[in-house]
Amino acid sequence: MRRLSLLVALVAISLFGALLVLSCGDGEDADDNGETPQATVKPTTVATAAAKPIVIDEPLPRAEVTSPLTVSGTASVFEGNVIVVLKDAAGKTLAQTSAQASEGAPGRGSFEAELEFAPPDQRTNGIFEAYWPSAKDGTPQDIVTVPVVLLP
Asked: Please, what is the Cα angle at 28 between 23 and 29, to 5 degrees?
């Protein structure tokens, strides 16, 4: 009698960000020698959102946006201070404001802000950026860039 194969997957993220997948069986009862397949461990590196200081939820890349633009995400940055900037394709700043994450580093907090800008005359590419300012000199740290499409 043919028995059902057993597939067990154990996923664990270690302190070093490795993803471990443990599986037993591969959909077959036995190999050509009549032996049951043994468990295998395959380590895979995973970049987790929690490892990045700033993660943008909205806007999504290539999103079509109008004024006011609502931006949101999570951050683990000094004092929870996130600067959000909207630029045109030439790099000219159209709007800028600060957002306060609900928690500062080492915790992770959520943030949301609105950017009001003068709409372009026609559909054009733009760039949304988020960063946290250095406590030492205010220089942008860990800049996250999201391409967007600005609509009239």
From this structure: 100
62/125 same-domain check: yes
Structural domain boundaries enclosing 80: 50-150
Tell me, yes or no, whether 26 and 58 share the same domain.
no
Dihedral sign from CA coordinates of 28, 6, 26, 33: negative
Considering the domain architecture, whether residues 116 and 71 belong to the same structural domain is answered as yes
Q: What is d(CA 151, CA 109) in angstroms, rounded to the nearest whole number? A: 30
Give the mean pLDDT of 129-149.
96
The number of angstroms, rounded, from the C-alpha of 42 to the middle of its chain's C-alpha atoms is 24
| pLDDT value of position 5 | 35
pTM for the model = 0.67
∠ CA 39-25-8, rounded to 5°: 75
